[in-house]
Design goal:
Length: about 325
């Protein structure tokens, strides 16, 4: 679980309680008050309190899923294999269902269908939302069992907006996202990849790598960290560009066992195609936290620092 605190409306508009819903600490002197839904009005003092408060609900939903899942469906060990589809389901669902509980909570179920080779499946996420944006994920799983998918179509289906017509891209083929991605891959880490992909412009001087960052000629020494970062990342971010191309960013932080203050981030950016295949366009290490932060764009679906669940918190 991870929280992306954003600036909200005024404190009067967003603050519903004087105490943290989990630890009951007074919020009077808390600079950043976090919440994951508006209907019930629960406020939290920290990311840890959000995790602790909702963990019993997470455990109950996991137990129910284990009970409903058929024997021939994907097992517990398949979570990492499908982690990128969780991000895409939250970002661009095929279906959204709203189920209002007796306690007044509004649980949303996001569903999307995918195909990877010969394998067709549905990814399901049960979550809370803030203004339609997923804020806390109780449960996320892939399944081949349509009967199981039907079990999670609870409450009322929410109509989704029809996708807008894809905008025409000005200029010739050299301006396409694919060519921009290829260009970025050839200059890994020198300029800000997202700027080149989504703005079509060169990165500003403030977005260039620091002069004391890991030099490009040493990147070969970090190739061994690319596969572990994709297989078991600390974070996964998804982004859909203006041309409807989908991107996934995998980030892992590696620390020196002898010196905890010495670390580097491995960043891997991939294009994701409709058939589920991925194409890596950039992979590089950095010791600059500010530079790594520039690649945290879109929807975050995995944050190992906070265990099960995912949140997009709101700061009051």
């Amino acid at each position: 679980m991870g929280i992306n605190a954003r600036e909200g409306d005024s404190l009067e508009d967003l603050r519903f309680s004087d105490f943290c819903a989990n630890c009951r600490k007074s919020l009077a002197e808390i600079e950043t008050i976090l919440f994951v839904e508006k209907e019930v009005g629960r406020c939290f003092c920290s990311e840890e309190c959000i995790h602790d408060y909702f963990q019993p609900a997470v455990d109950a939903m996991l137990e129910e899923h284990d009970r409903l899942r058929s024997r021939g469906d994907y097992g517990d060990g398949a979570g990492e294999r499908f982690s990128q589809y969780r991000a895409l389901t939250l970002e661009d669902p095929d279906e959204v269902w709203l189920n209002e509980t007796d306690s007044g909570e509004r649980h949303f179920t996001f569903m999307s269908k995918f195909r990877s080779g010969e394998d067709a499946f549905t990814y399901v996420c049960v979550c809370l939302t803030i203004e339609g944006v997923p804020s806390f994920v109780f449960l996320g799983f892939a399944t081949r069992d349509e009967d199981l998918v039907e079990q999670y179509r609870r409450g009322t289906e929410i109509p989704l907006e029809s996708p807008a017509a894809e905008p025409e891209v000005a200029g010739g083929p050299e301006d396409s996202a694919a060519n921009l991605a290829d260009a970025a891959a050839n200059e890994i880490g020198r300029q800000l990849l997202w700027e080149k992909l989504f703005a079509g412009e060169g990165a500003s001087s403030s977005d260039l790598r620091r002069s004391d960052d890991i030099p490009r000629e040493q990147f070969d020494q970090f190739v061994q960290f690319i596969e572990p970062t994709m297989d078991d990342p600390d974070e996964i971010w998804s982004f859909v560009d203006p041309e409807k191309q989908k991107w996934l960013t995998f980030i892992s932080i590696y620390k020196d066992h002898e010196d905890e203050e010495t670390f580097f981030s491995m960043i891997v950016v991939c294009r994701l195609f409709e058939n589920g295949e991925m194409q890596m366009v950039s992979a590089f290490p950095t010791i600059d936290p500010d530079f790594a932060q520039k690649f945290r764009r879109g929807v975050q679906s995995v944050n190992k620092a906070y265990g099960v669940g995912w949140t997009r918190g709101n700061a009051a």
